[in-house]
Structures are given as structure tokens and as C-alpha cells.
Amino acid sequence: MTDAPLQTVTNAARLLKAFLTREESLGVSELARRLGLGKSAVHRLLTTLATEGLVEQDPATGGYRLGLVVFELGEAVRVHMDLHAAAGSVLAHLREETGESAQVGMLDGHDVVYVDRLESSHALRLFTETGRRVPVHCTSSGKVLMAFASEPVRERFLATASLTRHTPQTITDPDEMRRALGTVRARGWADAVDERELGIASLAAPIRDRHGAVVAAIGIGAPVSRFRAMPRKRLARVVVEAGEAVSRRLGWSEDVMSLRKES
Amino acid sequence: MTDAPLQTVTNAARLLKAFLTREESLGVSELARRLGLGKSAVHRLLTTLATEGLVEQDPATGGYRLGLVVFELGEAVRVHMDLHAAAGSVLAHLREETGESAQVGMLDGHDVVYVDRLESSHALRLFTETGRRVPVHCTSSGKVLMAFASEPVRERFLATASLTRHTPQTITDPDEMRRALGTVRARGWADAVDERELGIASLAAPIRDRHGAVVAAIGIGAPVSRFRAMPRKRLARVVVEAGEAVSRRLGWSEDVMSLRKES
DNA sequence: GCCGTCGTTCCGTAAACCGGAACGCGCTGT
DNA sequence: ACAGCGCGTTCCGGTTTACGGAACGACGGC
């Protein structure tokens, strides 16, 4: 860690991440511009990555795109997220109960990454794919993850993260956020209405691993119109119970955690 | 391509691929041994990749594992496989019709990669995850992909691939394989019974893109016992029709392809 | 309490990678 | 038709850079 990072490898990593924009394929010159590198360097990186199967060249356009090996690696990661196994049927149950899209998110840096997801059956539904990042401070999942993070992590987040305003409802003041997170911690769930984008709302609860640490959040997202029509109390209970169900599958037993009132 | 590959990047790529074995986490020394590199080199690679989020260190064991960014990248690849969108409901229909696990596979090198999959509802079912590689020469999907590949690709495969024997039924002779592929091409589907592993059987048909090129195969896999009990003719028709349904969604119109007899 | 092994750090040197320029190609607009 | 542009690709020299080997502190087991 004290070592200077390998610049070539760093460049290769950044190159791969450039494809996170989900563009169909990217050209050498375009990538060189975005990465601030020479064309030849990018070309060499690409051909190298291509021989390893991490990227592949579109014979028609000459552009490059991510290769199947990357897909394989992604699936390998998914397998080790015990969450995927533990959350599967719970997500299905949650969607059935609420009729809305249900998802599981994990914290990574200053973002939440959705690692699993089931879509609502409604025609009007939230569009979010797995693997997408969303901000922490204006989503219910993010607030849950922050509320239950260790205190140093939380304070570091409040100190360094920019609480960017997305809507008039977005919480942008660190102190207000601190208070909001306290509430979340106290009642065991978080919601977010119109905070990230006008018209969408979500509600989430924590998922704990076998040691009791909150490693992920499970929740539902819906259009504000439908969200408002649902009895908030029942909804929160359903989501919290879903979180507890997944936690139990991960080996967490709420007995060890002294006094917690069950509904 | 004529350039010498960047060795550092190659090492980084190989390092990532080492995680395809799906081990929970790997240590510096272990990786150094597998890759034939020095410990310090591996350590530097890992710390570099870690700062980019491609790998992460388990604070408890000190070992490393793939990071969430890799998962994100994998999902980004999935999106661009139009197949995922096109095949979804067809896979569901196929599983419903047959009651068996249904999957979509693509060719990559000398392997077939399953890019999409739905599991059978039977208690006894094939266990294969998406992102897994299987050999070409002893699977129905593989035979379909080879049978409909361009002639140079096919011949190159027959010349260079080692038709490894997995069971007594595995086709290991290039000439016999050539004949088998001819049959597949003629009738439009392939099967494989006890060829990869004793007790499992599969049947697959081609998926064509808008230009008519066979880019993937769709098929079902089942225990040989159940497979034998199904009327082969009907099963083949169902699978072939599933392939045609996906192909149509990919923009392929069978009209342009002159004379093809529909059932 | 002693090895063996782990992850990590340091350092000198040889090899590897970056940048810049040039090439061939397919466009587009004149 | 032709010139101009942008593309992906190639080549080559100079300097940076990444490799290997050895040493360190910590952990854990016979």
C-alpha cells in the first residue's frame, strides 16, 4: 500500500472501467482522449487485453468492447456474494408482498452497488440494473448502510463525501444527515422520497452477516404515487422482516444480540 | 496484434483469471506460485488492482478476492449481449415446455460459455452457473456452434483442439466429429448423451443474429433418465423453435434465407 | 519456543513501456 | 476526383519502471 501503484496496470484498470458507461464499443482514439493517454499506449493496452480475452475487437467497426472473460469474472464474484444465494427467494417474496421492484445493495466507496434485483410487474416501474451504482446520501439503501456502518466510517463519509443536491428534497447538510441516520438506526429502516430523483421513492432495511455487521441493504423502490398509497407501517415491517430473513440465512442469530423487540 | 503484449498487463490479466477457479480468496504466495512470478510482483499487482477496486483484501485473512468493480464490469457486458434481453422469455417458455434446465451458450475460444440460464424445477437437475465454461466437442451447444461456424473456423478447431475423452461416448476422432457436425448442420439441432459426463444429456439449436450468422446456441440439459423418456422429435422441434424465436428477436428474418422447410 | 509460512518492504539494475511521428485506409464535403 | 480529416495501426528511441531477491515482523502449529 505504501508502494507506488503500477502505472501500466492502473491504466489498464482505468481502461476497463471506461466501459462502465455501457457504450456499445469504444475506439482507440476516443479512449485515449478520455484517459489522457497516447493513442499508441491505449492501442497496446487493448491488444494485450484482447489476447487475454478481457476485451474484444468488433471486426466491423474496429472499435473495442469488453470480452466474455470479464463476464465470467463478474459471475465468479457473484457466486461469492453469499447474498445472491441468501437473498434470492426473499427478494421474490418481497416483490410478491409489495408488488414493487426489490433489490439488494452493498456499499462500495461512496456509492451503493445493486448486486441483486427483481423487477416490479407493474408497467410503470423503476429501471435499475444490477451492477449499477447510485449515491449513498439520497437513497434508502445508502442511508441504511451508512446508519449502521461503524462510527469512524460514517464520520469519514460525512466529512469527505459531497452531499450533492439532486432534488429539492436531497439532504445536503452533514448535520441534518447525521440526525437522519440516527433516526434510521433507531427505527431499523430508511426511506427516501423524491431525494434522488423526483417521482421515485424507496424503503430499505439492513442485512447482517453472521457477526452482526451490516453488509448490505434490502429494499423496494416504486413510483412516489404508488408508494404514497401503501401503508408505510406495514411496508416497513415487510422490508425489515425481509432483511432479517436474509440475515438469518447468512448465519446471523438475533438472540446473541441482546435485547431487540420483535413486532 | 503484431506488437509484443505488455507483460505487466498480461500478468494482471492472468492474475484476475486465477480467480475463475471460484476460490473464496487467494493469498499472495499462492498466486505467485500459480503464476510463476515473484511474491513482490504479485503483491504490487494486487495492491494496484485494489486501489482500482478490481480486487479487495480480506482484512481477516490477508488474502485477496475479486472486487465489486469486476462485478459491475460483468454486468456491463451482460447488457450488451442482446441475447440476454432476447432470450429471457424464450428461456422461460422453453423450461416450461420441457420442465428441464434451459441455457444459452456462446463460443469463446475452444470453450462454450453459458451466458444465460434457467434451472429446472425438478429436484434432480443439472448444476451449471452462468459464466461457466464447458468444452465444445462434447456438448450439444458446442456442437451446434461448431457445426454452423464458418468453414475455416471449424477446420481450425478440428485441427487444433484436443478432443479430450471425458466418457466412453465422447467423440474424439476429428473425422467422426466432422461427420457428426455435418448431421447437425443438416437437421438443424444437436444432442449429446453421456458425452461430457455420464448421466447427463442435452439438446441444442442455433441462434442467429440479424445477418444470419450463428452467434449462440439455445438448449436444454437433463438427466439421461428423463431425457430418454421424452419424445426426441417433439423435443427437438421445441428447442429449434426456441432458437428461431430468439433469432427473430435479434432481427433475423428467415425469409431472406431462401428455402427452409418449416414444420 | 522454534520453525515454516504468511503478507509486506526495500533496493539496484535490466528491461519494459510511453510518446511522438508516420502509414494506410475509409469517409465527407467540396 | 481529390483533398482533408479521423480512424486504427506500426515503428523506434530514451527514460522511466517494474522485476527479483533478500530481509522483516507477525502469526500459528508441531
UniProtKB/TrEMBL annotation, chains A, B:
Keyword set includes Transcription: yes
HTH iclR-type domain segment(s): 6-68
Keyword Cell inner membrane assigned: no
Organism of origin: Actinomycetospora chibensis
SMART domains: HTH_ICLR
Transmembrane segments: none
Domain IclR-ED: 69-252
One Pfam family from the record: HTH_IclR
Domain of life: Bacteria
InterPro entries: GAF-like_dom_sf, HTH_MetabolicPath_Reg, Tscrpt_reg_IclR_C, Tscrpt_reg_IclR_N, WH-like_DNA-bd_sf, WH_DNA-bd_sf
Keywords: DNA-binding, Transcription, Transcription regulation
Protein name: IclR family transcriptional regulator
